[in-house]
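[User]
Um, tokens okay?
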Amino acid sequence: MPEPLRLRFILNTFYSGPQAWFFVAEDKGYFREEGLAVEFTEGDTLANAVPRLADGLYDAGYGDMNALVECAASRPDEAPVAVFAMHNRSPYTIAVPAAGAVLAPQDLAGKRLVTHPNDAAWRMFPEFCAACGIAPDSVSIEVSALPHKDIVPLMLQGRWDGLFGFVNTIRAQTIEAGLDADRLLRHFEWQHHVPSLYGAALMVTPTLRDAHPGAVAGLVRAVNRGLADTVADPDAAIAAVARRNPGLDRVANRARLVGTLGLEMAHPEGARIGIGAVNPERLTATAALMAQAKALPSVPAAARLFDAGFLPPLAARVRTLAQVL
């Protein structure tokens, strides 16, 4: 029996609930059945996974589709290619105190926001501003390495007026801080203001795609099976994450996983084309918007950003999340 093909895989963050499908696929032997040995490395942001793939440090990863647009515009030969779009809606948000004076995006002018380094929402702030009619330089932004569970209480005390991040990440870490996220926070979500955006996707390097197309197809099949199992049994999926991160707050991460399924992965187009697939018109619109907002050197074509040739048949894709929502 031939040795499995070793794949170096960069995750978006530390082991957490919204990555469960990868670990379910590993624990159930789906990668092994495809002749693969996937070696996961924890990452530091969804956006940062993209340049690390472009640099050849990893063979595959979980990266941000919009960071991919930016990378492909400047590094068309090295940029990775998405092969399975996990988030069919953008998870980006600016969370503000619900009791505060910021009631609409336009109220952010003159306010103080805080972000993690290289946060994907912060990187897409120019596009949000363009859609909402805000001058980006009218907002003061501070970069902090503090976790959200520490930032949110400080924000509620008045240190900042808003926080960049992902809706469910902020919500989960607010819960971990012992606070009522739904009562205390208001969100300005990119999905409402910049609706063309996708979020996280399974990506591979051009080298892996060209040299081992069968391995890429197998990787997608295994992850798709892991996703289906995660939707069918979120508790078992969280257990798979906890085996890799024993200190995991299971309650918060289950809420984060289910929240991700309900927000980032429940765009109506999923019922039509299945989770994993994309609408090329949305990608084209995103690339055009980003090229304008960021003055990119080129506008990547949708076919350069996403290769649909590795998707499983439509009948095998997840098309409803009703059982967990």
In short: The longest strand covers residues 5-10. The radius of gyration is 19 Å. Residues 213-232 form the longest helix (20 residues). The chain is about 45% helix and 15% strand.
